[in-house]
Amino acid sequence: MRAATATATPPRTAITMAMAMTIDTAALVRLMSWLSPAFPVGGFNYSHGLEQAVAAELVSDRETLKSWLDALTTRGSAWNDLVLLAEAWRQAGEGGDLAETAQLAEALAGSSERHLETMNQGSAFLAAASAWGQGIAAGLGPRAALPVAVGACAARSGLPLEATLAAYLQAFLSNQVQAAQRLMPIGQTGGIDVLSTLEPLIGEIAARASRSTLDDLGSSTLNADIAAMRHETMPSRIFVS
């Protein structure tokens, strides 16, 4: 008996991902400004628990760093950030009340340092983004978690959701790689290798997060969460988190 055959859905190639995230030049420039290392949010101060992970030898080379970042992106804090960003983007675009989303994002910070990291960066982002007009952060006040701040401001600037999610995730992963370069001997070439390997994942997860709802929130990266907590008691450290 002949086996039944089915047509598989083709994988998202670099070209199809680029088509899905088509963005005009003005919007691209704004995203590059907001999510570049030069934007004054102080991202270089935070390792998101990576410093403790390196000290505990959970992350020690390119491959373990890739695995660590893959986990954060697909089922950890980075994924939750994208879901929250998407919700804030929708609420702001529809003129909804951002207060509940902002409160939820703050409550989901799993440790005191994670809370400090997202709230300090979010507040700094809102202050800097006010250069594009005071109304851009309406409904948030001076303080909000970073993904909520970025999502709301992006919606009010007419920036497309999927491209904003991809840019946000790439900025987060780049900051993690820069932290790793200061913590262990992977060098610039190794760091670029990690980022290039993660490019397809960024496109895939941005597309998935653009279709997400708050029901998709969830994390199963216990080692990363514990590392973020243990970092608070490290006797000697470079990073705030």
UniProtKB/TrEMBL annotation:
Its main location: cytoplasm. GO terms for molecular function: nickel cation binding. Keywords: Chaperone, Cytoplasm, Nickel insertion. It comes from the Bacteria. One of its GO terms (cellular component) is cytoplasm. It is found in: Cytoplasm. InterPro entries: UreF, UreF_sf. Belongs to the UreF family. UreD, UreF and UreG form a complex that acts as a GTP-hydrolysis-dependent molecular chaperone, activating the urease apoprotein by helping to assemble the nickel containing metallocenter of UreC. The UreE protein probably delivers the nickel. Required for maturation of urease via the functional incorporation of the urease nickel metallocenter. This is Urease accessory protein UreF. It comes from Pseudohoeflea suaedae.
